[in-house]
Write a structure and sequence with these properties.
Layout (H helix, E strand, L loop, with lengths): L2 H10 L10 H7 L21 H17 L11 H21 L6 E6 L33 H6 L1 E6 L2 H10 L1 H5 L3 H13 L1 H7 L17 H9 L11 E3 L2 E3 L9 E4 H4 L7 H4 L5 E5 L4 E5 L11 H11 L7 E3 L3 H7 L6 H12 L6 E3 H8 L1 H4 L7 H16 L4 E7 L14 E7 L13 H6 L6 E5 L9
Parallel strand pairs: 5-6
Antiparallel strand pairs: 1-2, 3-4, 6-7, 7-10, 8-9, 10-11, 11-12
Helix pairs in contact: 3-4, 3-10, 4-6, 4-8
């Protein structure tokens, strides 16, 4: 195993003191990027584990198919259209990884020349003649961990146009055995191992759990944002003198997690409100994708929403207040102050009339954004939330109901083990309405971290699975 390959292996798989990667776990990751036969724009996942790579690719793929194509028949595309969509998606993620690093070149990992393992033949289901030398989606059992990493090579690409050409030329490699790992390693080497280690919070933890095979949050963030940070909140936070890195910009596709509904974490606005209405959904063990075609769901951030987000970066515990000593920093971050000494002192006395030494979020927003917050904090909490949501829907044009879709790439998690989108209708209500109360499912609880009173009416007899 070459030195470069060893560094990649250590970053992705190795945990100090572990006994290496089991053959069964590695086999689960050795699959290609292949489309479902029943859902032409959906990628299939054969076993648990590689969803940390496949789900982000699927999210970007849907973005490009839904919003970058003129055809309205987005669920039925030709093989050539599949190739074009997948390759442009992979190039986009690689470009994002390069733009967030100090490198100016791209790295593509493939089989070393003449080292591609023997391919098998497939007999079409129609009973036609055999198609020879077609790469399989899953690697053969005899392609072990050590051997795989000993027969790799990398290609260095200097320009974006050359990258796009090379990605297209490697289409069969992405589809074939180990395509998921080839792309993952390409992103890692394009980003740079040193750059990734500088962003990961705990460098002793690998990107893939060597026991269970699940991808880490750092791996998901790397593919979604180009940064391998370990957290999902907005901006950086300090804890006991240590800086913890979060998300710094609005992302193209979003991320929501069931863990937030269980209060294990809090996803920030940059991931909750992406540029396109597509969200990766995280459960305890799996990633799926929820999406819609309504662009009004992801309207640009309003000034009051920006103020709320900035305020909360100075309130890492989500207490709803900050020490008055931080008020000047918050106001400067929002360009709300021109004369610090006099104006900040005036605002402190106005926002903290009792001299408690704290500034509450609600009065802060009401003071600086009265037209957008109105009477938001008058009345009960339920009334407050309803007032805010009604104003948001009025300002952004969010409809009361809209079509939604859910994707789960695991065959065994789909009806009849056929990977297909589950379509439904989302109702975004002002308050909980017992007349339209739907089942309390993990998918719904995950979405309620963004839309607290959302209800989902699926077109199928059973709700889609988050696992």
């Amino acid at each position: 195993m070459g030195e470069l390959n060893k560094e990649v292996v250590d970053l992705v798989w190795k945990r100090p003191g572990s006994n290496g990667v089991s053959a069964s776990l590695f086999r689960r990751w050795t699959q290609g990027l292949v489309f479902s036969e029943t859902e032409h724009t959906a990628l299939e996942q054969f076993e648990g584990g590689p969803c940390a790579v496949i789900a982000p690719i699927q999210a970007f793929l849907l973005k490009n198919i839904l919003f970058n194509r003129e055809s309205s028949n987005w669920r039925h595309i030709t093989e050539e259209e599949q190739k074009a969509a997948l390759c442009s998606t992979l190039a986009e993620i690689l470009e994002q990884a390069c733009s967030t690093s100090s490198t100016t070149s791209f790295c593509l990992v493939t089989w070393a020349k003449g080292q591609c393992p023997h391919t098998t033949t497939h007999t079409p289901l129609t009973g036609g003649p055999e198609t020879s030398q077609q790469p399989t989606a899953l690697a053969d059992e005899d392609l072990g961990f050590e051997r795989f990493h000993s027969i790799l090579q990398k290609r260095i690409v200097k320009s974006l146009s050359e990258l796009r050409e090379e990605v297209v030329s490697l289409y069969e490699t992405w589809k074939g055995r180990c395509g998921v790992l080839f792309f993952l390693y390409s992103v890692i080497l394009t980003k740079g191992i040193v750059n990734i280690r500088n962003e990961i919070e705990d460098t002793t933890e690998p990107l893939v759990d060597p026991v269970y095979g699940h991808g880490s949050q750092s791996l998901v963030n790397l593919l979604v944002t180009g940064h391998a940070v370990s957290n999902v909140w907005d901006g950086d936070r300090e804890c006991s003198g240590m800086k913890l890195h979060g998300i710094h910009n609005q992302t193209s596709v979003g991320f929501l997690t069931l863990m937030e509904s269980l209060r294990y974490c809090k996803v920030g606005a940059f991931l909750k409100s992406p540029k396109f209405p597509i969200w990766i959904l995280g459960s305890e063990t799996h990633l799926s994708v929820f999406f819609a075609k309504e662009m009004c769901l992801v309207a640009p951030e309003s000034p009051s929403e920006q103020a709320r987000r900035v305020f909360q970066t100075f309130d890492p515990e989500d207490n709803g207040f900050i020490p008055d000593s931080l008020l000047e920093e918050v106001m400067k971050a929002l360009d709300l102050v021109s004369e610090p000494e006099y104006y900040v002192s005036l605002m402190k006395s106005k926002l903290d009339p009792e001299g408690l030494g704290i500034v509450l979020l609600a009065p802060f927003l009401l003071e600086f954004f009265p037209d957008q917050t109105g009477t938001l904090w008058q009345g009960t909490m339920a009334e407050e939330w309803e007032s805010e949501r009604q104003r948001e829907r009025k300002d952004t044009g969010i409809p009361d109901s809209f079509p939604v879709y859910h994707y789960n790439g695991l065959k065994q998690s789909n009806h009849n083990e056929r990977v297909e989108y589950v379509q439904g209708t989302a109702l975004v209500l002002g308050l909980e309405d017992p007349m339209v109360r739907t089942d309390d499912t993990p998918v719904k609880r995950c979405l309620q971290t963004k839309w607290p009173y959302i209800e989902l009416l699926w077109n199928t007899d059973r709700s889609p699975s988050l696992n």
